[in-house]
Structures are given as structure tokens and as C-alpha cells.
Amino acid sequence: MGNEKKEHHAAAPMVAGILGGAVSTVSLFPLDLIKVRFQANEDPGYRTKGFRRRTMLRTMGQVIRHEGLVGLYQGLAPALIGSAASWGGYFFLYEGMKKEMLHLKHEASPHDETEHKLGALENFGAACSAGAVMVLLTNPVWLIKTRMQLQMKNVMKERERDGLSMKRPYNNMSDAVRTIVREEGPLALYKGAIPALMLVSHGGIQFVAYEFLKNHFGAYTKEVRTQADSDGSKRNNVIERLEDSVGYLTMGAVSKVMASSTTYPLQVIKTRLQQRSETIEISEAGGGRGE
User: Fold this and answer.
1) Residue-wise DSSP of the chain
2) How far apart are CA 194 and CA 272, in angstroms?
3) Which of 41, 90, 172, 218 is deepest in the core (most CB within 10 A)?
4) Reported pTM
5) Complete domains list, the chain, with CATH
6) How far apart are CA 88 and CA 211, in angstroms?
7) What is the pLDDT of residues 56-108, one digit of tens each?
8) Per the UniProt entry, what is one GO biological process (predicted)?
């Protein structure tokens, strides 16, 4: 029974990562699509029509008008797969690495009765190592997601009227894999991998910031509640849980903003590298895919 409990406990971060990743991906996907289109900035249809100064709401309205509500969810399937694999694997590896590092610390000083804790640099190393492994495993999925998000029906219709490309490049995820491998070779699935590997610092920065804030928040709440106990004050468990929830939510948001602000330029570079080559589009306009 003890081993089973340990296995369940070890799998908990992975399951939480998968579920959390899926929920956040679905709920925030329209914003992610707009972000990717802003980063690529490749839509001549928008630019020639005076949409140089696009805003989030204006771009979202254009997508809905020309592509329908479903247009906001182009590329959702690879995003869900990538998110489940990335976050599930990330948390599993991250927690496993932290436990192993704590175990090594304990073995190095077995007679030290103080509680062993990982420092910021050690947490950063574990987060970056876990992130690098998942980048190498999931980069093809994220590339396909980006390509599918950049398919713009309204621009394709205009090109069709002009006698250019008559087809959407990718009909679905499996078609995208086949098309990319056929047109660009299998290594094309790893375009953007270098900035993606550099982006593991995003997770590292976020988790280091989160761990730092969590430790200080935990110490602060412990001190306040210990003081309340010593004063004989009554503690309200509901209020304490609410304080903890708000605290963890705030810490998560602050750490995410810090990480995103620091690494955003790398995200733009990654998107630009992963978007479909204009050379391929021109060759299609001239004579299709050679089929």
C-alpha cells in the first residue's frame, strides 16, 4: 500500500499539469491565436487594407467576420496535445528532479537535522532541464500549431480570386505533418527549436520567482498565524483558505508576468522561424504543390 501511495503521489503533478494545461489552452486559445498572428505580422491582406495599427479587439473581430468563431480555434488540436504533453511531462520531470536533488543533499549530509531545501539556482536548473527535454519532444507539435493558426481564410479567398493559391496549406494535423515533411523535409519540424530551447528560461524564471514568492508568503502567513495563536485569537479556517488561494493566485500571476516580459522577444523569433516559407507559397501560386 505504501508503494502505491508513493506512485499516486508522484503522478499527481503530472496529472495536475495535464488537466491545468488543457483547461488554460482551451480558455485562452483565441488570445494565443491573436498573439501568434501579431508576432508573425505576415498578412498582406490586413496590411494593404490599412490594418498596420492592429489592436487585439480589431484583429479578433476580423477573424470572426472572415473565418467565423471557429477561426479563433484553428490549431486547437495540436495545442491540446502539445499542452498536455508539455505540462504533464514538465511537472513530472521537474518534481522528480527536485526530489532527486533533495535526496542527494540529504546523502551528502546525513547527520544534518535541519530541513533540506533547494536554492533558487537549483530550482532554476531543475526547471530548465525539464523544459529542455520537453521542447525536444514537442517542438513538431508546436510548429504545426503555429502553422495552422496562421492560415487565414480571407486572404486565401483573395489570392484565389487573383489566380494564386487555391488551397489551404494544411487541412488537419496529420495532413500538416505529411505536407511539411514532403515540402521541407523532416528537419523542418524542428524549425524554431533553438529559440524554443532558449525559452526554457521562461519556465525557469517563472518557477524560481514562484518558489521565491511562495517561500516568503509561507513564512509570513506562518508567522502571522503563530502570533494569533499565542495571542489567543480565534482562527477562521475559511478565511485562511481564502487568503491562501488569493496569495497563490497572485504569486502565479506575478511570476508569469515576470517570465513573459523577460522572454517575449524569443517568442517572436520562434514564431517567425516557424511560419510557412514565402518561397513555398510562391511556388504553389505558380503551379501548385506539384501533384
Assistant:
1) -HHHHHHHHHHHHHHHHHHHHHHHHHHHHHHHHHHHHHHH---HHHHHTT-TT--HHHHHHHHHHHH-GGGGGTTHHHHHHHHHHHHHHHHHHHHHHHHHHHHHHHHHSTT--SPP---HHHHHHHHHHHHHHHHHHHHHHHHHHHHHHT--HHHHHHHHHTT---S-S-SSHHHHHHHHHHHH-GGGGGTTHHHHHHTHHHHHHHHHHHHHHHHHHHHHHHHHHHHHHHTTPPP-HHHHHHHHHHHHHHHHHHHHHHHHHHHHHHHHHHHHHHSPPHHHHHHHHHHTT--
2) 12
3) 90
4) 0.72
5) 2-199+277-287 (1.50.40.10)
6) 19
7) 888 899 889 888 899 899 999 999 999 988 888 888 898 899 989 888 888 87
8) nucleotide transport
Contacts of 191 (CB under 8 A, 6+ apart): 143, 273, 274
